[in-house]
């Protein structure tokens, strides 16, 4: 396992950063009510942070350093994965998109076996069963397993594969330049979103008016500075420290927070499915962190 001195601290930081995305539906609804609908919101949430970072990238270039797009492959994988995930909701049922994207821990484990030649600990099997059972219980609502049946289903499942691949790639190359990692994520993720808009323009929703964009721009800048950029620093960097497999399980905290916050603030249902599923997801994360960590300390 990873032996970084701040291993547990980084796991906790990732738990908070990923979990906070479970609250993002709140500003998302505000954007939609002001005309920034569907895929246009995804484009804005990629390129507004990029534009905020652009002056620093230009300064770096003038100072003789690289512009900052040093990790195009990670940017395409992780940024593209998020772009696919966000836009899959425009093409298929929400439940199907969530379940198919959150197969991410399975893909991360497979990619670790193939590309990192890692010997998967038995504890990973336990955490995978707990995590996937939790996701299934929360979202299934009596549905049979949603094998991909339409374009949106495939977009969601490919998004999960890309994101898991990006996490493994990050683990392989161990990027040290967080600025470049973040800039690559926003630029190439935004590029994938724009290409998606060209291919599936009929589901993007109406183009926001000039007045709507001006009204929302200060809020987009604010949310980029206090949320999108800080959380993605943790989310993009942590696979290089804790490994892609554990990473892919901890990010399921978004489901737990999203389910609970929707019940608290939007009067959505929080019954036995949501409660049991959330507990299983939390148990998966705890077991994936604790079992190897305890065994590592025991062997010292």
Order of helices and strands: HHHHHHHHHHHHHH
Please describe the biggest sheet, giving its number of strands, its sense, and whether it closes into a barrel.
none
Radius of gyration: 19 Å
Number of domains in the coordinates?
A: 1
Which consecutive residue ranges, at least 5 long each, have pLDDT under 50? none
Strand percent estimate: under 5%
Give a description of the structure.
With 300 residues, the protein is mainly alpha-helical. The protein has one domain (7-299). The protein is 76% helix and 0% strand. It contains 14 helices and no strands. It has helices at 7-20, 25-33, 38-62, 72-88, 94-101, 104-115, 122-139, 151-173, 178-199, 210-237, 239-242, 244-250, 253-265, 272-299. Helix 7 (122-139) packs antiparallel against helix 14 (272-299). The radius of gyration is 19 Å and the shape is globular. The two termini are 13 Å apart.
Note the topology.
Layout: H1 7-20, H2 25-33, H3 38-62, H4 72-88, H5 94-101, H6 104-115, H7 122-139, H8 151-173, H9 178-199, H10 210-237, H11 239-242, H12 244-250, H13 253-265, H14 272-299
Please summarize what this structure is.
The protein has 14 helices and no strands. With 300 residues, the protein is an all-alpha fold.
Which key phrases capture this entry?
globular, mainly alpha, 14 helices, 300 residues
């Amino acid at each position: 396992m990873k032996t970084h001195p701040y291993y547990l601290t980084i796991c906790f930081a990732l738990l908070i950063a990923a979990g906070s995305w479970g609250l993002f539906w709140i500003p998302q609804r505000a954007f939609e009510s002001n005309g920034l609908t569907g895929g246009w919101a995804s484009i804005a949430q990629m390129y507004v942070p990029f534009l905020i970072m652009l002056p620093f990238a230009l300064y770096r270039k003038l100072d003789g350093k690289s512009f900052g797009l040093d990790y195009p492959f990670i940017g395409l994988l992780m940024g593209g994965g998020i772009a696919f995930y966000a836009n899959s909701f425009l093409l298929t049922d929400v439940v199907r998109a969530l379940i198919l994207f959150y197969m991410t821990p399975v893909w991360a484990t497979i990619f670790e076996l193939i590309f990192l030649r890692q010997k998967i600990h038995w504890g990973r099997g336990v955490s995978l069963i707990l995590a996937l059972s939790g996701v299934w219980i929360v979202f299934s609502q009596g549905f049979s397993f949603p094998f991909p049946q339409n374009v949106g289903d495939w977009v969601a499942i490919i998004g999960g594969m890309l994101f898991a691949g990006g996490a493994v790639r990050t683990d392989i190359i161990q990027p040290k330049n967080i600025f470049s990692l973040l800039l690559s994520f926003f630029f190439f993720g935004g590029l994938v979103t724009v290409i998606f808009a060209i291919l599936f323009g009929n589901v993007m929703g109406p183009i926001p008016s000039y007045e709507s964009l001006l009204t929302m721009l200060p809020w987009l800048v604010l949310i980029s500075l206090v949320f999108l950029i800080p959380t993605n620093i943790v989310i993009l960097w942590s696979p290089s420290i804790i490994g892609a497999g554990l990473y892919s399980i901890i990010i399921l905290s978004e489901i737990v927070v999203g389910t609970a916050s929707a019940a608290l603030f939007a009067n959505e249902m929080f019954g036995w499915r949501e409660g049991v599923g959330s507990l299983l997801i939390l148990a998966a994360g705890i077991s994936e962190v604790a079992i190897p960590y305890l065994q590592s300390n025991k062997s010292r």
